[in-house]
Amino acid sequence: MPVRLDRVLTLCRHRILPRSKECLPILMYHSVSDDAEKGIHPYYRVATHPQRFAEQMQWLCEFGWAGQSLEEALLVLAGGKSNGRRPVAITFDDGFRDFYTAAWPVLQRHRFTATMYLATGSIAASRQSFRGKECLTWSEVRELRAMAFVLALTR
């Protein structure tokens, strides 16, 4: 799989330039699916393959990172209670159903949490879609919320 130049430059920047102890990495995802997103320029693709996502979360765990909601990670950064692992905020945009089926099980396996920004106009009692992808239903949103998952509602 080809590597994007902007991602390589980001990695190089973090290896070369000095970092403050108060640096909070934020990983942003949209879709965790095997959708090839044909017809979309690679720069604008938003799907991360489930295997790649699982590898990324495994890597974070192995190297001492704690995947957290943005709120939790900011609290740790501000001097709050830490479990001894470095915080990394994990966010998801849009509220796609593949989060529930592909990403959430991986996050649970590593005892990670995340923040999801929901496109509430595409979430309903019955399955809706947004940008050609199935979205969560309100019952799935309530289930995630009951498991202490942080959800932020957007329009």
Describe the protein in words.
- The protein has 155 residues and is an alpha/beta fold.
- It is built from five helices and nine strands; from the N terminus they run αβββαβαβαβββαβ.
- The longest helix is centred in the middle third of the chain and has 13 residues, at 50-62.
Characteristic key phrases:
5-stranded parallel sheet, 23% strand, two-stranded parallel sheet, globular, alpha/beta, 155 residues, single chain
Write the layout of secondary structure elements.
Elements: H1 5-16, E1 26-29, E2 31-32, E3 47-48, H2 50-62, E4 65-68, H3 70-77, E5 86-94, H4 97-109, E6 115-119, E7 129-130, E8 133-134, H5 138-146, E9 150-154
Parallel strand pairs: 1-5, 2-3, 4-5, 5-6, 6-9
Antiparallel strand pairs: 7-8
Alpha-carbon Rg, integer: 16 Å
Q: Summarize model confidence as the mean pLDDT.
A: 85
Shape: globular
Order of helices and strands: HEEEHEHEHEEEHE
**How would you characterize the largest beta sheet?**
5 strands, parallel
Summarize the structure.
The chain is of the alpha/beta class. The protein has helices at about 5-15, 50-60, 70-75, 95-110, 140-145, and strands spanning about 25-30, 30, 45-50, 65-70, 85-95, 115-120, 130, 135, 150-155.
